[in-house]
Structure formats: C-alpha cells, structure tokens
Write a structure and sequence with these properties.
binds adenosine-5'-diphosphate; alpha/beta; 42% helix; seven-stranded parallel β-sheet; 8 helices; binds magnesium ion; Rossmann fold
Amino acid sequence: MRITLVDLKGGTGKTTSAVYLACALSQTGRTLLIDMEAYGSALSWSEAAPDLPFTTIQMPVKDLHKRINDLATGYVHVVIDTPAIVRPIARTALLSAEHAVIPISPSLLDIDRLNETLGLIDEVEHVNDLATSILLTRVRRGTKSVKATREALTEMGLRVLETEIPLLESYAGAAGTRPTDLAEYSEALEEVRKVKA
Ligand SMILES: Nc1ncnc2c1ncn2[C@@H]1O[C@H](COP(=O)(O)OP(=O)(O)O)[C@@H](O)[C@H]1O
Ligand SMILES: [Mg+2]
C-alpha cells in the first residue's frame, strides 16, 4: 500500500501522521517512509528514534514517481511525507501513491487553504487514479468547530474519515520517539484501506 500525506499548508499534521501510519503499516509488512522535505523532519525523527519499525529515507526530488518502483523494491508499504508549499514535490508524491491522505485541523483557515491542494489532486487524477481522504487531526472532541468542519468538507463532496486524531500532548511530544500506542492511527489506517479511488 502506498500512501501520500499531502497538504500545501504547513503544520497540519503530515509528518506526525506519516510516522504513525508507517508504524501501523509496518505491522503487516516491511515499510519505507520517504521524507520529501528538504529539511527532513521525518528523517530527523528517525535519527532520534533508531528503533522505529520502518526505514526512512530523504528524497526531495520532483520525479519521485519515476524512481518509486526502484526505491520500493523489497518493501510492502510506502508512506510519503511531503512539505508544504512546494507544488512540484507534492505533485510527484501524488503520482507515486494510490492513496492521498490530507490531514487538517478543524479550523476554517485550514479549509480555506485546502482548495489549492485539491486542485493539484484534480490535475494528478487525470494520470493517476487516487483515493483521497481527509483526516481530521488535533481535534477537540465534541466541539462545534469539529462538527462545522466535518459538515463543510462533506458538503464539498470530500471523503472525511470517521476516525479523528485528538489534540493530545502525547502526539505533540512524539517527535523523536517510537510511538508505543498507535491508537487512532490504526483505526484511520483500517478506514483508508477500505477507500476506493
Ligand atoms: N494530534 C496532535 N495533537 C497535538 N499536537 C499535534 C498533533 N498532531 C501534530 N501535532 C503537532 O503539530 C505540529 C505540526 O505537526 P506536523 O506533523 O509537523 O505537521 P506538518 O508536517 O504538516 O507540518 C507539530 O508540533 C506536532 O507535534
Ligand atoms: Mg512536516
């Protein structure tokens, strides 16, 4: 399974989600995490936590889709973490996977910026049939903003995963450690598995 975490906005939870999903995927097969950020926060995370159950490489190239099959040799699963803003990188990452997961916080600001990312996914879909899901992260359960965000996204015709990642200190402080409790991310992965393009 190949999953790209994408959102042209920064700080939405891409790297955190990439690492947790890679942990969850590694339970069913050898997993490769490709960090496409030039400054490599997933790579730094993996350096600080050598016991992570997957392999991490940094590859900030615009033609990942031409290299992905070689890179993925020997791996069952690939997770791709992308940077904010850099369209050509996000584009090649989307061309390299069958699933796109967009993590966003329940805030109207994040929805505003989403169109840019969705536009890119539209372009790519002509070439690569992607299954796209939105993952709500940093969620304060039961708040009006979660409900409003979910409704707005659904109205936009988007697939929003039922699983929500709560706003928790354990996630905020997870960088550089091996996640022990995959909690919501295991559930999110089960949902993503079932999504068809
Ligand atoms: N569920 C969560 N609860 C609390 N903090 C979170 C959660 N997910 C991510 N964070 C924090 O939010 C910030 C942005 O997350 P990150 O995964 O680095 O986003 P991106 O890769 O999209 O820039 C980081 O400081 C991270 O630790
Ligand atoms: Mg990141």
